[in-house]
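Quick one, C-alpha cells below:
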C-alpha cells in the first residue's frame, strides 16, 4: 500500500462490502471456529486423561497453549517469506488446504486415543495459523483504503472473537457428544471439523488475487538468522515496534484470560465444567464489540488515542473481576448467582476494553508498514506476540502452582501489570489521548460527517486553512485527523492557568495580534518551521469567529507560513455549525437552546493547493468547499412546504401575515386557510395531473395563501407578471403549459388582458367551501402532529431537486425566459438570508415586491412562511403614502426594495411612517450614495446594497449592517459594493473573453457557484448551457472582488458599448451625468434618475452612445462640456445630437430600468440616421 493511503496502483480498490473482503471475513470466521473447536475438544479429553494419570488437569491448558503458540516462534521467517514472495491469496488458500489435512490427522489421533498425538496436531494447527496470519493481516490494507482500515480491522476482530466463542462452545458440545475420550460418535466430530474446513477452503477461493509484494525474495535457509533479521527490521521502525509490543501485551492478557477462565469458573465461582462457557462467551463477545466500536470511533482514520482508554478499561475491569470472584466463601443461591452475573458483566467490559486497546494498534501496524516488507514486519510482530503468549503457558502454572494464586488474583495481577503500560502509553501519546478524549466530548454534542478526509497528507508538513464558525472549530478539526495538528491560537489562551498545560501538550503556537509586527512574524516563523519539519499546522485565516456565518476576509500572514516551502495548503470548510450554541447565531454565544441533539455537522477537506499565488486563491478554495458542503446537505434537507407547516405552528397564535386591505392571519390561520384553499382547488378547479398553475395576484394575504396552498398540494405556482402585455404573458403561459390562472375579479378589472388559459376567480369559490372543509382543515391544523400531516399531504415525497416555481426574467435586456427554481435553490437562499440578517420574531417585513419578482418570491413569501418574522403586504410598491401608513401601523422593521422605489418614499413618506424601520435591503440596480444618505437623514436607517439575479434564487451577496451582525473588527458594510457572498455561495472573476481567473481588484466577468444556481431555463437547454458552465453561473455583470472579499459591480456586459475597439461603460457615464444634473435641480426632483445611457448601431464606430433623459435645464452642449470637465475620455462623451428627451424613464414592474425599452426609444429615434 502506498504511503498516501491508497492501495497500490496495480490493485483496484475494494470496499468493506466487496466480495474479496467478505470472503476474507468468512475464511477467518470458519478458520477460527475450527481452531477453537478442535482445541476445546482436545483440552477436555486431555484433562480427563491427565486426571486418570494423577496429573494436574490444568496442566493440559498450559500444554495446549504452548503447543499452539510455539510454531509462531519457529515459523516467523517462513511466514514472512510466503506472505511477501507469493500472492497473499495463494498463501491463504494453501493454508486452508492444510487445515483440511490437519483435521483428518486430528480425527485419526482422537480415534487412536494418543494424548500427545493430539497435542502434536494442536502444534500443526499452530504452524498453519502462523503461516496464515501474516497473509491474512497483510491482505487487509491491500483490499481496503486507509479510511477503512480501522473499521475493517474492527470487523475482522469481531469475526475472530465471535468465531472463537462459537468454536469454544462447539468444542465443548463435541466433547459432550463424544466424551470421555472423544471416540464415542466420532463421526459427529469428523463431519463438523472437516465440513467447516472444506467450506472455509471454498470461501478462500473467492478472495481476489493480489500481486506478490516481493516475488524475488529469497528462501530463508537459516531460520534463526532470518528471524533475527526480521526482528531487526522491526526494531529499526520504532513506531511499529511500539505498536507490536502493545499488540503482544494484548495477546498476553488475552491468552492469560482465556486459560484463566476455566479455573475462575470451576474454582472461584464453583461452577460445573459444562456451565463455564458463558464466561468465555461474554469475554470474546466483549472483545468483538470493542473491536467494532474501535473501528467506528476511529472515524475513518487510524486513531491511537483510543488505546489509553482501552488500557484504563482493562485495569478497572480486572480489579472488578477480582472483587467479584475473590469471595470464595459465598454461599450458594442468590449471592452465587449475583457473583456469576457480576463476573459476566466485568468480563464483557474487559473484552470491550481489550478490543479498544488492540484494534487501533493493529490498524497502525498495517498502515505504517510498507507494502514491500509488510509480510516480514507482520511475521516479526507475530513472533513477538506469540512469544508473549508462550510466556503465558509457562507463567500460568507458576502463578497457580508455586505462587498459589487463585484465578481472581490472576485477574488482579493482570490489572496491576497494565498500570505501567497505561502510564507509558499516555506519556508516549499525550496528544493522541487528549485528541481522542476531545473526540468523545465533541461527538456527544455533534454528529460529524467527514468529507475528503483523504486530502489530509499522512506524512509531511501542510498548512490547514479553515473558516471559523464557532468556539469548537479547533477541537473538531483536531479530532478529524490521526495526526497531531498544531494550531495558531491567541497568546492569552496559552497563559490561562486552566489551558496552559493543554496548549503546551498539543504544541499550540501562540500568536498575539496586538503584540506588534515582530511578535506576529515570530509566531508565523514558528508555524513555518513546524510545517518544514513535517508537521500539520492549522490557522483560522479570518482571525476571529464569524458574526454572520459569511466567510470573512483572510489575513495575508498565512502566505508567510508556506512561502519558500513545498508544503501544500489544505482548505477546510466547517459546515452547519452556524446555529449551534458555540456560534454567534442569534448574536450571542452559549445562551441559546441547541436546535438538535446531537447536532449534525460536516467537515469538508479540499484538495491540496500547491504554491498558491495569493491569499485570495486560498479563500476562493475554502468558499468553493462551502458550495460543495451545501450540495451535500441536499439529501437531508427539509423542503419548504414542510418548513412552512412547522414554523407557522410555532407561532400558532401570533400575527403572521397582513395586508393593506385589513386582512390578517396568525400562523395557525395561515395553515388553516391554506389547507381549506388546497381542498377547494383540488376538488373544484385543478386536475390531479395539473402541475403548473398560474397566479395573477399582487402581493397580499390572498397571494400568500394561494402560493402556500399550491405548494402543499405539490404543484408549482407560477406568479405571472401583471405589468407586461397579454402577448408576453401568454408566451409565459404556453411555455409552462398552464391550464388555469388563479386571480380575482378586482385584479382583472384593472388589467386589459386576454389570456390563453382558463381564468379562475377566487372570489367565486368562497361559496363552495363546505363545513367538512373547515372542520377537517381545522383538525389538521390544530390537532394532528406535523409529521402525520406531512405524510397525509404527501409532502415527504417532495425531493430537494423538485421544482418550487418558475419565475420569468423581467426582460430588461431581452425576451423573458422561464427560470426553474427548485426547493433546494430557494430553501438554501432563505437559510442564507436569515442567517446573515439575524431575523427574529420581533421583525416585520414591509412586503412591497411582487411575487413574480425573484426577491419578492424568496424574501416576501418563503422567508416569511418558514421563519419567525411577520410580514405586511401592499399591492403596489409605488403607493408611497399607503405603504408609509402600513409600515407605521404594523411597526415594520425591514424593507426590501429597489433604489427607484426609495426615491418615491423619500418624497411622500414621513419620518413617523418609517420610524421602526432599521433594515433596508436594496437590489436590482446600483444604490446611489445620495439616495442612501438622504434616506438615512430622513428615516434614520441607511439602506444597504445587495446583489442577486433571478437565476440565482436570487440573493448572491449582501452588506450586513453592524446592528444585524454583532460585528467587531470585521466590517460588514463597504459602500459602493454589494457585500460578501452569503454562506454557501462562491464568487469569482474571470476574463470575459478567455475565461481565465483574474486576481484581486481586477474587473472582469462575475461568475457565481452555489446551491442557489437555477436548475435551468424552461425548455431552453442551449441557453442554459451558455450561462451555466461547470456549475458556475455567468451573470453577465462586470465586477471586481477586493482584498477583503467584497464584490463591486461595475456594469453589465450588456451595458457596455464597443466603440472604435474600446469597451465604454454606460454606468460610468450615467454616474457623471447624475452628479452634475442633480446640482441644478430642486430638492423634490434631486432623487430622480434624470438620464440614462444606451446605444444604437453605427457603421463607422460600431456603436453610438445615446442619452435618454427627462426635461433638463441644461442644453446637450453644456452637458457634454460638463462631461469633459469631469475627466471622461472623449470616447465616453456622447455627441450633442445624441440626446433624446422623454417624459418618463422606462421602468419595469420590478423597479429595474427597462433597458430593452430604453434601447427601443433610441433605435426608433436614431437608427435610420445611424445606419444611413
Amino acid at each position: 500500500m502506498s504511503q498516501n493511503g491508497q492501495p497500490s496502483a496495480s490493485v483496484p480498490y475494494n470496499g468493506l462490502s466487496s466480495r474479496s473482503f467478505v470472503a476474507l471475513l468468512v475464511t477467518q470466521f470458519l478458520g477460527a471456529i475450527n481452531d477453537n473447536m478442535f482445541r476445546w475438544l482436545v483440552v477436555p479429553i486431555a484433562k480427563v486423561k491427565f486426571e486418570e494419570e494423577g496429573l494436574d488437569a490444568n496442566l493440559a491448558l498450559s500444554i495446549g497453549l504452548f503447543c499452539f503458540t510455539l510454531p509462531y516462534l519457529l515459523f516467523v521467517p517462513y511466514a514472512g517469506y510466503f506472505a511477501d514472495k507469493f500472492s497473499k491469496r495463494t498463501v491463504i488458500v494453501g493454508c486452508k488446504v492444510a487445515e483440511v489435512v490437519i483435521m483428518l490427522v486430528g480425527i485419526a489421533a482422537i480415534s487412536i486415543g494418543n494424548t500427545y498425538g493430539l497435542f502434536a496436531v494442536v502444534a500443526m494447527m499452530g504452524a498453519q495459523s502462523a503461516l496464515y496470519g501474516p497473509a491474512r493481516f497483510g491482505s487487509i490494507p491491500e483490499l481496503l483504503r486507509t479510511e477503512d482500515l480501522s473499521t475493517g480491522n474492527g470487523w475482522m476482530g469481531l469475526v475472530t472473537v465471535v468465531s472463537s466463542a462459537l468454536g469454544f462452545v462447539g468444542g465443548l458440545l463435541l466433547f459432550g457428544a463424544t466424551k470421555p475420550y472423544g471416540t464415542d460418535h466420532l463421526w459427529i466430530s469428523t463431519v463438523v471439523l472437516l465440513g467447516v474446513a472444506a467450506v472455509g477452503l471454498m470461501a478462500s477461493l473467492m478472495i481476489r488475487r493480489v500481486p506478490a509484494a516481493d516475488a524475488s525474495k529469497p528462501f530463508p535457509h537459516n531460520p534463526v538468522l532470518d528471524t533475527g533479521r526480521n526482528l531487526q527490521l522491526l526494531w529499526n521502525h520504532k513506531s511499529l515496534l511500539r505498536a507490536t509490543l502493545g499488540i503482544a501485551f494484548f495477546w498476553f492478557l488475552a491468552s492469560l484470560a482465556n486459560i484463566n477462565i476455566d479455573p475462575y469458573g470451576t474454582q472461584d465461582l464453583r461452577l460445573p465444567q459444562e456451565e463455564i462457557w458463558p464466561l468465555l462467551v461474554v469475554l470474546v463477545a466483549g472483545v468483538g464489540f470493542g473491536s467494532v466500536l474501535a473501528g467506528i470511533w476511529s472515524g475513518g482514520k487510524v486513531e491511537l488515542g483510543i488505546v489509553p482508554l482501552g488500557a484504563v478499561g482493562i485495569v478497572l475491569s480486572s480489579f472488578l473481576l477480582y472483587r467479584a470472584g475473590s469471595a470464595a466463601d459465598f454461599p450458594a443461591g442468590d449471592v452465587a448467582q449475583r457473583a456469576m452475573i457480576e463476573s459476566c458483566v466485568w468480563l464483557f467490559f474487559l473484552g470491550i476494553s481489550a478490543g479498544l486497546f488492540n484494534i487501533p494498534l493493529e490498524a497502525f501496524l498495517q498502515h505504517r508498514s510498507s507494502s514491500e516488507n509488510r509480510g516480514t514486519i507482520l511475521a516479526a510482530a507475530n513472533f513477538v506476540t506469540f512469544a508473549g503468549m508462550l510466556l503465558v503457558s509457562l507463567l500460568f502454572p507458576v502463578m497457580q502452582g508455586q505462587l498459589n494464586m487463585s484465578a481472581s488474583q490472576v485477574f488482579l495481577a493482570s490489572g496491576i501489570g497494565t498500570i505501567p503500560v497505561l502510564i507509558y502509553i499516555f506519556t508516549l501519546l499525550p496528544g493522541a489521548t487528549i485528541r481522542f478524549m476531545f473526540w468523545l466530548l465533541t461527538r456527544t454534542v455533534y454528529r460529524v460527517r467527514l468529507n475528503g478526509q483523504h486530502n489530509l497528507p499522512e506524512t509531511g508538513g501542510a498548512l490547514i486553512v479553515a473558516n471559523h464558525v464557532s468556539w469548537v472549530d479547533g477541537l473538531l478539526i483536531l479530532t478529524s485527523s490521526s495526526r497531531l495538528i498544531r494550531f495558531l491560537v491567541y497568546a492569552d489562551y496559552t497563559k490561562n492557568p486552566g489551558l496552559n498545560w493543554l496548549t503546551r501538550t498539543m504544541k499550540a503556537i501562540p500568536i498575539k495580534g496586538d503584540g506588534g509586527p515582530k511578535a506576529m512574524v515570530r509566531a508565523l516563523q514558528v508555524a513555518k518551521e513546524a510545517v518544514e519539519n513535517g508537521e500539520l499546522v492549522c490557522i483560522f485565516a479570518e482571525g476571529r469567529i464569524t458574526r454572520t456565518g459569511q466567510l470573512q476576509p483572510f489575513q495575508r500572514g498565512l502566505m508567510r507560513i508556506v512561502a519558500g516551502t513545498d508544503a501544500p495548503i489544505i482548505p477546510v470548510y466547517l459546515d452547519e455549525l452556524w446555529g449551534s450554541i458555540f456560534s454567534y447565531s442569534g448574536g450571542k454565544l452559549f445562551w441559546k437552546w441547541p436546535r438538535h441533539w446531537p447536532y449534525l455537522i460536516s467537515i469538508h477537506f479540499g484538495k491540496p493547493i500547491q504554491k498558491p499565488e495569493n491569499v485570495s486563491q486560498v479563500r476562493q478554495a475554502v468558499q468553493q468547499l462551502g458550495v460543495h458542503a451545501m450540495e451535500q446537505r441536499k439529501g437531508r434537507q427539509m423542503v419548504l412546504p414542510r418548513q412552512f407547516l412547522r414554523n407557522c405552528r410555532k407561532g400558532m397564535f401570533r400575527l403572521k401575515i397582513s395586508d393593506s386591505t385589513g386582512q390578517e392571519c396568525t400562523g395557525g390561520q395561515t395553515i388553516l386557510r391554506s389547507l381549506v384553499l388546497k381542498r377547494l382547488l383540488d376538488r373544484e378547479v385543478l386536475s390531479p395531473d395539473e402541475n403548473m398553475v398560474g397566479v395573477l395576484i399582487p402581493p397580499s394575504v390572498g397571494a400568500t395563501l394561494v402560493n402556500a396552498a399550491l405548494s402543499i398540494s405539490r404543484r408549482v405556482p407560477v406568479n405571472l407578471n401583471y405589468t407586461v402585455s397579454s402577448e408576453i404573458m401568454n408566451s409565459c403561459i404556453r411555455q409552462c403549459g398552464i391550464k388555469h390562472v388563479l386571480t380575482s375579479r378586482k385584479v382583472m378589472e384593472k388589467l386589459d388582458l386576454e389570456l390563453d388559459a382558463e381564468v379562475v376567480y377566487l372570489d367565486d369559490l368562497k361559496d363552495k367551501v363546505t363545513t367538512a372543509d373547515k372542520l377537517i382543515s381545522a383538525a389538521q391544523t390544530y390537532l394532528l402532529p406535523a409529521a402525520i400531516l406531512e405524510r397525509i399531504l404527501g409532502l415527504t415525497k417532495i425531493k430537494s431537486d423538485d421544482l418550487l416555481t418558475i419565475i420569468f426574467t423581467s426582460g430588461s435586456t431581452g425576451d423573458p425566459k422561464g427560470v426553474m427554481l427548485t426547493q433546494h435553490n430557494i430553501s438554501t437562499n432563505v437559510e442564507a438570508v436569515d442567517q446573515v440578517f439575524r431575523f427574529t420574531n420581533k421583525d416585520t417585513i414591509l412586503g412591497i415586491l411582487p411575487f413574480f419578482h425573484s426577491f419578492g418570491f424568496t424574501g416576501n413569501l418563503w422567508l416569511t412562511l418558514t421563519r419567525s418574522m411577520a410580514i405586511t403586504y401592499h399591492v403596489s410598491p409605488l403607493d408611497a403614502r399607503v405603504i408609509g401608513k402600513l409600515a407605521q401601523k404594523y411597526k415594520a422593521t425591514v424593507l426590501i426594495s429597489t433604489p427607484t422605489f426609495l426615491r418615491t418614499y423619500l418624497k411622500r413618506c414621513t419620518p413617523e411612517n418609517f420610524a421602526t424601520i432599521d433594515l433596508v435591503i436594496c437590489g436590482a440596480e446600483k444604490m446611489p450614495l445620495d439616495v442612501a444618505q438622504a434616506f438615512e437623514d430622513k428615516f434614520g436607517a441607511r439602506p444597504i446594497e445587495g446583489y442577486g439575479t433571478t437565476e440565482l434564487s436570487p440573493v448572491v451577496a449582501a452588506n450586513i449592517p453592524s446592528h444585524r451582525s454583532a460585528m467587531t473588527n470585521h466590517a460588514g458594510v463597504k459602500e459602493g459594493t454589494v457585500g460578501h457572498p452569503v454562506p454557501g455561495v462562491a464568487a469569482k472573476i474571470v476574463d470575459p473573453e478567455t475565461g481565465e481567473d483574474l486576481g484581486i481588484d481586477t474587473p472582469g466577468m462575475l461568475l457565481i457557484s452555489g446551491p442557489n444556481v437555477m436548475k435551468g431555463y424552461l425548455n431552453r437547454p442551449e441557453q442554459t448551457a451558455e450561462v451555466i458552465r461547470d456549475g458556475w453561473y455567468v451573470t453577465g455583470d462586470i465586477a471586481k472582488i477586493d482584498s477583503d472579499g467584497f464584490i463591486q459591480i461595475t456594469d453589465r456586459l450588456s451595458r457596455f458599448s464597443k466603440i472604435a475597439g474600446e469597451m465604454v461603460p454606460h454606468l460610468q457615464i450615467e454616474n457623471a451625468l447624475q452628479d452634475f444634473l442633480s446640482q441644478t435641480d430642486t430638492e423634490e426632483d434631486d432623487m430622480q434618475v434624470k438620464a440614462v445611457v444606451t446605444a444604437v448601431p453605427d457603421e463607422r464606430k460600431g456603436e453610438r452612445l445615446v442619452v435618454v433623459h427627462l426635461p433638463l435645464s441644461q442644453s446637450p452642449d453644456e452637458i457634454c462640456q460638463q462631461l469633459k470637465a469631469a475627466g471622461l475620455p472623449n470616447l465616453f462623451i456622447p455627441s450633442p445630437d445624441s440626446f433624446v428627451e422623454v417624459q418618463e424613464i422606462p421602468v419595469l414592474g420590478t423597479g429595474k430600468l427597462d433597458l430593452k425599452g430604453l434601447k427601443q426609444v433610441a433605435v426608433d429615434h436614431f437608427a435610420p440616421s445611424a445606419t444611413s
